[in-house]
Amino acid sequence: MSTELDARIRLARDIERGASVLSSRVVEAFLNVPRHPFVPAFYRSEGTVHRPWRNGGEGWLRAVYADEVLVTEVDGVHAEDAPGTGVGGVATSSSTAPGLMAEMLDALDVRPGDRVLEVGTGSGYNAALLCRLAGAANVTTVDRTGRLAHAARERLGAAGFGAAAVVRADGALGCPGGGPFDRIIATCSVRRVPPAWLDQCVTGGLIVAPIGNALGGGAVACLTKLPDGGAAGRFLHRPAAFMPLRADGSPAPAHDVPAGGRRRTSVVGARVLDDHGFSFWAGLRLPPATVRAGGGSTLHDPSDGSTAHVQDHPGRPSTVATGGPRDLWQLVETAYTSWRRHHRPRREWFTLTAAPGGPQLVTYTAPDGEAVSCVL
Ligand SMILES: C[S@@+](CC[C@H](N)C(=O)[O-])C[C@H]1O[C@@H](n2cnc3c(N)ncnc32)[C@H](O)[C@@H]1O
């Protein structure tokens, strides 16, 4: 199937061109591990409807080997099981954009023989790349969904990586009974690094994990396990809005947000959170459950029902309608003032330190020496 091979070679070249520094071992893995067997069906979105697109012709293959995320599950319905008319809801599993996968794998610095844990098996494609880098017998991957774990196990086996362990488990607990691991990578986001990941990683080992921030300012933390049992490190420059690690039985995130009733003018425009540097900073200052919806102009905190809908008006100040006990938008306005005062710091200028069994701090030190810390 030379068209597939051509597409795969093109993707590996695109990945190599896109990232600033990328280990040649990572590029080699993308060159040699095909993506299409892991995503025989995925969704295309048409407005609010997600329609399945099954293993097909040239257009399908182009989509598989594009540097794009492929949504494979919506509200627990896998694209392979979906009716042709499509489904509505929120993405609950996907194959991450290859360029972002490559940067995360590069940061994970996997050597042959490293014992690796992946949290969030999904399609199994990233696990297959890990198998190529570490050796399949050294790879354990966990997903909370039996359907996904089963399919990934079969596909990894068919790709020659049957020695990998694919486990249905709550990844918040790492791999109970497994480990220790030299490398831990998560492909779903967490607000804080779970203690189990710290416990199951060897001293000097690496943990690469998206720290979720529902404003779209999510960032991938690259941490080294310290001798005291904690971990510390920095963030990748590239924004990474991963789906959250969900507790077993927890519902998919809500998509309908109630309207707000109190109106006022806003000192910042509706698109201010589109700046990924700022959204990272703002996300550290808003209630942790806050989500951004409504095409980006709505904030909602499902934990107390607070909402804020922002509207831009040509030639006039933006307005905001708020509801619930808290004015979420005022927190954004205050964060914007402090972000500018601190020289608009970028996510890769922050450090994350996770004390064993203690607080996890994100810290930025400004040029004047002032350190700004937020507890996750
Ligand atoms: C972005 S997808 C993973 C992509 C995957 N690595 C791949 O290559 O296709 C995120 C995955 O995290 C899984 N997930 C969410 N919560 C989880 C949990 N508590 N434990 C394990 N997996 C979880 C989801 O089921 C979903 O498959």
Descriptive account of the structure:
The chain is an alpha+beta fold. The chain has a domain at 2-188: 3-Layer(aba) Sandwich (Rossmann fold). It has helices spanning 2-18, 24-32, 58-64, 98-108, 125-134, 146-158, 195-200, 276-283, 328-341, and strands at residues 41-46, 49-54, 70-74, 77-78, 87-88, 91-95, 116-119, 139-143, 165-168, 181-186, 201-211, 219-225, 231-239, 262-265, 291-293, 298-301, 306-313, 316-323, 351-354, 360-365, 371-375. The strands form four sheets. The chain has a ten-stranded mixed beta sheet with strand order 9-8-7-10-11-12-13-19-20-21. The termini are far apart. The model has no long low-confidence stretch (mean pLDDT 91). Residues 93-96, 119-120, 122-123, 125-126, 142-145, 148, 170-172, 187-188, 242-243, 245-246 line the site of S-adenosylmethionine (SAM).
Looking at how many chains there are and whether they match, the oligomeric state comes to single chain
Structural class: alpha+beta
CATH architecture of the domain at 2-188: 3-Layer(aba) Sandwich
Shape label: globular
Task: Please give the CATH class of the domain at 2-188.
Answer: Alpha Beta
Fill in the CATH topology of the domain at 2-188.
Rossmann fold
Feature tags:
376 residues; Rossmann fold; 5-stranded antiparallel β-sheet; binds S-adenosylmethionine
Compact overview of the structure:
The protein is an alpha+beta fold and 376 residues long. The chain contains 9 helices and 21 strands.
Q: Which SSEs are present, and which pair or pack?
A:
Layout: H1 2-18, H2 24-32, E1 41-46, E2 49-54, H3 58-64, E3 70-74, E4 77-78, E5 87-88, E6 91-95, H4 98-108, E7 116-119, H5 125-134, E8 139-143, H6 146-158, E9 165-168, E10 181-186, H7 195-200, E11 201-211, E12 219-225, E13 231-239, E14 262-265, H8 276-283, E15 291-293, E16 298-301, E17 306-313, E18 316-323, H9 328-341, E19 351-354, E20 360-365, E21 371-375
Parallel strand pairs: 7-8, 7-10, 8-9, 10-11
Antiparallel strand pairs: 1-2, 2-5, 3-4, 3-6, 11-12, 12-13, 13-19, 14-18, 15-16, 16-17, 17-18, 19-20, 20-21
Helix pairs in contact: 1-2, 2-5
Bound molecules: S-adenosylmethionine.
